[in-house]
Amino acid sequence: MDHVLSTHLFVNHRLTTVWLERIRRADIPAVEVFCARQHLDYRDRAQVRELGHWFADSQLRLHSLHSPMYNDDCWGKTGPNAVITLTEPVKAKRVAMVDEIKRAIEVAETVPFRYLIQHIGVGAEEFDERKLDAAFTCLEELSLFARQRGVEILLENIPNALSSAERLLYFLEITHMELGFVFDTGHANIMEGVKTAWDLMKHRVRSLHVHDNDGKSDTHLFPMLAEGGTIDWRETMALFRACPPGQFPLLLELKEAPGVTNPIERACEVFEKLEAIRAED
Questions:
Q1: 7, 23, 69, 107, 222 from 19: Cα distances, Å
Q2: Residue ranges in 34-90 assigned as alpha helix (H)
Q3: Rounded mean pLDDT of the chain?
Q4: Domain containing 54: what range?
Q5: Scanning 62, 69, 126, 209, which has the fewest C-beta atoms within 10 Å of its C-beta?
């Protein structure tokens, strides 16, 4: 499987070419960049241009961009108005949020990428049919905007009542939208379980978010290295291996851990251990 590393691993640091060069030197061929303004300020044309020049001369590919979750540069700490969600009931606010996501998609005009990873709602959000109507309206507009720039939107399973595997399929059924999925192992582990979620989503999966947790908290642990993980990685890799080659890459979405001085090297260890499972089997 192709290897991709999400820059979520160092999302609290400004994304510079130094970080990207470290990933390239680790022989990881592609990245997913997390759109958080303290990390990648997609509104900052100077930062986007700098990254664009670097990618143009590098073998490292930009596989995907994770859609912004907040419009501030401190993880939404400026208040509830910083949250970006497609389920916002007030139209004027929702239009502003769609415009914010469009600014992120415009990065593709400078640095081409294939997928935009998008949430429906926020963590622990309750189910409401009216919220699905709002999300559908947003995604219709965003999908057109993205396609015009060569980008495909993928929906992610997240821990809320709108984005379980079953509810994502229900959303596509009632809207008739032809969207793919990004399968998040950690979120599935918290919700219905990895195998149950995978069996429902697998035919539409185009990318992954691979990380571990204790089944309760979304801690984005390093699989097979960090203490407290509860996912059965032998079973999980067997599920992935059963799909056609090239359907999706093995993409790690990890969280920076205290005391880990070389997180990119540790991510490479995770790739090796997961691939070793496949080799043994």
A1: 9, 7, 22, 18, 19
A2: 45-56
A3: 97
A4: 3-280
A5: 126
With residues binned 3-state (H G I as helix, E B as strand, rest as coil), the percentages for the chain, rounded to 5, are: 45, 15, 40
Radius of gyration of the chain (CA): 18
Residue 258 has a pLDDT of 87
Q: Reply yes or no on whether the pLDDT at 160 is more than 70.
A: yes
Task: State how far the alpha carbon of 242 is from the alpha carbons of 117, 192, 204, in Å.
Answer: 23, 20, 14
Instruction: Tally the C-alpha atoms within 13 A of residue 251's C-alpha that lie toward its C-beta.
Output: 28
Q: HSE-up of 238 (CA within 13 Å, CB side)?
A: 8
Q: How many distinct structural domains can be found in the chain?
A: 1
Contact (Cβ atoms closer than 8 angstroms) between residue 62 and residue 117: no
Please give the distance of CA 235 from its chain centroid, rounded to a whole number: 22
Q: How many residues does the chain have?
A: 281
Of 100, 107, 2, 95, the C-alpha closest to 65 is: 107
Question: What CA–CA distance (Å, rounded) separates 177 from 149?
Answer: 19
How many other C-beta atoms are found inside a 10 Å radius of the C-beta of residue 7? 22
Tell me the one-letter amino acid at 242. Answer: A
Amino acid, single-letter form, for residue 204: R
Separation of alpha carbons 16 and 164, rounded Å: 34
* pLDDT, position 259: 85
- Between the alpha carbon of residue 271 and those of residues 5, 68, 72, the distances in Å are 10, 26, 33
Written as six digits, the tokens of 202 are 């697998």
Q: Output the domain CATH number for residue 190.
A: 3.20.20.150
Tens-place pLDDT, residues 138-157: 999 999 999 999 999 999 99
DSSP state of 193: -
The token pair at 173 is 């059924």
Q: Are 153 and 146 in contact (CB under 8 A)?
A: yes
